[in-house]
Structure formats: structure tokens, C-alpha cells
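Blinded run. Sample ID left blank on purpose so nobody reads anything into the name before looking at the predicted structure. Input follows.
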Amino acid sequence: MFSSYIFVRIDFREHENVLHVPGTVKFIYFSGAAASVPDEQIGWLRKISDSRFPVEVTPQSFEPGEKVEIREGPFRGITGELLSRKGRYLFLVRITGINYNLLLEIEQRMLKKTVKSVSQ
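Blinded prediction complete.
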């Protein structure tokens, strides 16, 4: 899904050891700190990856839209934003720690409005 990215759960003291793994180049940093993706979002990535559902990955920034949650199907419980682009309804999932977004085409009937805030 993210070309050349590998996600690791490590203690800060293990940073150096990870860099010795063949093929590893560096950690991703934002504002001087190593990027960190919340566990909940890692779970979302696993669900989406395992499903083989068509997904578009984009670093493009979006203005916050209507907050929604998927209420059925393999992505049930994932929260994001509803967007409309070129006549299609897309579900935006922000992967905050690495500043990427996932866009999934989801039928509106599978969504419900939520008051739960979406991390940006």
C-alpha cells in the first residue's frame, strides 16, 4: 500500500538495531520526531490490506469533511471523512503519523454520521 514503508513497533532504544536490518535506510521524521502511527490506524491498514479492496493512497491534503464511520462490511468501525470527487463518494482515512491518506469508494448506505472527532 505504501511503497518502501515498513511499520515497526519498537522501544526508542531499539532504533539503532532496526537501522541494521538489510534494506532499511531510515526512519520517517516529522517536526524532528520519528513518525508514529496510532495502533488503531495500523489495525485499519491491516483490514484494508487484507481485503484487497480497491484503494487509492495519496499524500494530497484535504479539507476536513463530514465525519463518518463505516457501519457494515469488512471495514466496520473505521472512522474517516466523506468526500465527493468527480461524481464519486469517497471515504477518506487519514494515517496521521506518516501524513498519508487512503481513499476508498464506499456506498453511502454503509456509512453513518459520527460525532467522534477524526485525528488530523
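Unblinding after everyone has recorded impressions. The first helix runs from residue 15 to 18.
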